Amino acid sequence: APAPPPARHLFSDPAEVEALRRNLLAWYDRCKRDLPWRTLAATEPDADRQGYAVWVSEIMLQQTQVATVIHYYNRWMQKWPTLQALAQASLEEVNELWAGLGYYSRGKRLQEAARKVVSELAGRMPRTAEDLQKLLPGVGRYTAGAIASISYGQATGVVDGNVIRVLCRLRCIGADSSSPAVIDQLWDMANVLVDRSRPGDFNQALMELGATVCVPKSPLCRECPVKQHCRAWRRKLFGKAPPVPDIEDCGVGDCPLCPPATEPWDSSLGVTNFPRKAAKKPPRAMRTATCVLERRGCHGAPEYLIVQRPSSGLLAGLWEFPSLPLAQDLQEENEREELADHLQAWMGQPVAAKGLLFIGEVIHIFSHIHQTYVVYSLHLDGDVTLDPALSPSRWVTEDEFHASAVSTAMKKV
Ligand code: SF4
């Protein structure tokens, strides 16, 4: 078994843990942001509805800024205020409301899980983190801990990106913070720290601290309610020769939580020496040809063809202009020809590559893909019969396009 990490990285002094909880919760009570899911969770008397309200917010907040989520959250809760209402929604409605929020499988899985709660669990949310994670598709360890602590008072910690940053700074953890060994340590730490009488507030306070004070760049250490417990802050104050031995690195090379010997403390970075991550793989480059097919609708207004993507994979089930992934090194004239062939399969009639008008390129960065859309347009005069054997497709006006379940990338196109 691996040796336990040195105590200097842990919270092993009960008095210090108690003081940290007290200081953090007092700050949270004074400074917490007014957010719609907090109001709902605090005022909703029904435990299942309360769990649902927290669950929706936690899923939306994954990889997404609070400011972006608020609008989507309010619309979602207005449309589907209960699990039962969500269970009856169609995937198309869910995708339409989610359009623009990114990571679209989140909405789909939320709806699948709501159906499961209604049909298999009699509409009752599981009450513990263990059961939430086991029984609900799309609910991982973090979301389960958040729902269980905030809605059901279970004294269980949570670890998300904000918590990782705060804990790594509080305890000078400089080993790769995305490695399983460090993540396991952080979960253990979060479970030690969580306040037994106010676990939900404590977890939210720790995340709030990471989101508003202990931010990635230029953290506001002077205003920080837990600075007296922060080893990174003390190390910054005392520089290279700390007077207290336990804030030094444990020793070169043999501590599983210290920065690697090849990347020692950089005094110009201060507390932002922590956390550290192994370098990310650069996103994969992809090129996709896409064609905006336009026709005159029956009222004379232009209409555009959109087609539905497959029900799994990237942007599953969303609508887009007919698109075709391209090989990286294809010449422009070959791109046109491939796209023309692709369109011909849709329309069941020849499409001249020369008729495709090149409009420009649109770049969109997905989390792991650097996507370039090569955009063409084509105006159609006569009537076109689309092949019903292919994916679902429909003609839409510009307004209908914007109200459809289309991705942000397609809106850019
Ligand atoms: Fe973060 Fe600075 Fe507070 Fe430490 S003192 S927890 S680095 S904001």
Automatic annotation (TrEMBL):
One example of a Gene Ontology biological process annotation: base-excision repair
Annotated cofactor note: Binds 1 [4Fe-4S] cluster.
SMART domains on file: ENDO3c, FES
DNA damage among keywords: yes
Reaction(s) the record says it catalyses: Hydrolyzes free adenine bases from 7,8-dihydro-8-oxoguanine:adenine mismatched double-stranded DNA, leaving an apurinic site
Major localisation: mitochondrion
Domain HhH-GPD: 60-212
EC number per UniProt: 3.2.2.31
Matches recorded under InterPro entries: DNA_glycosylase, Endonuclease-III-like_CS2, Endonuclease3_FeS-loop_motif, Endouclease-III_FeS-bd_BS, HhH-GPD_domain, HhH_base_excis_C, HhH_motif, MIG/MutY
Cofactor(s) essential for the protein: [4Fe-4S] cluster
Keywords in alphabetical order: 4Fe-4S, DNA damage, DNA repair, Glycosidase, Hydrolase, Iron, Iron-sulfur, Metal-binding, Mitochondrion, Nucleus
Keyword Mitochondrion set for record: yes
Compartment list: Mitochondrion; Nucleus
SUPFAM superfamilies recorded: DNA-glycosylase (SSF48150), Nudix (SSF55811)
Top EC class of this enzyme: hydrolase
Family named by the database record: Belongs to the Nth/MutY family.
Function comment: Adenine glycosylase active on G-A mispairs. Involved in oxidative DNA damage repair. Initiates repair of A*oxoG to C*G by removing the inappropriately paired adenine base from the DNA backbone. Possesses both adenine and 2-OH-A DNA glycosylase activities.
Protein name: Adenine DNA glycosylase
